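Incident log, support desk, overnight shift.

02:14 A customer reports that sequence design results differ from what the structure should imply. Their input is reproduced verbatim below. On-call engineer (initials T.W.) acknowledged and began investigating.
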């Protein structure tokens, strides 16, 4: 399964960056975000997203 991960702006919560990754990469990205305090929005990717 693939997920779209959006990094959110600390001020207004808007998506500043978006990437689509496989399930194995989600855990690593979440750990990195937690360590640095970055806010994320994660959702299942559309079937055609890459």
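02:41 Re-run completed on a clean worker. Output:
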């Amino acid at each position: 399964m693939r997920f779209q991960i959006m990094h959110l702006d600390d001020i207004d919560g808007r998506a500043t960056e978006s990437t689509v990754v496989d399930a194995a990469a989600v855990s690593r990205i979440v750990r990195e975000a937690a360590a640095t305090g970055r806010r994320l929005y994660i959702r299942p990717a559309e079937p055609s997203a890459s």
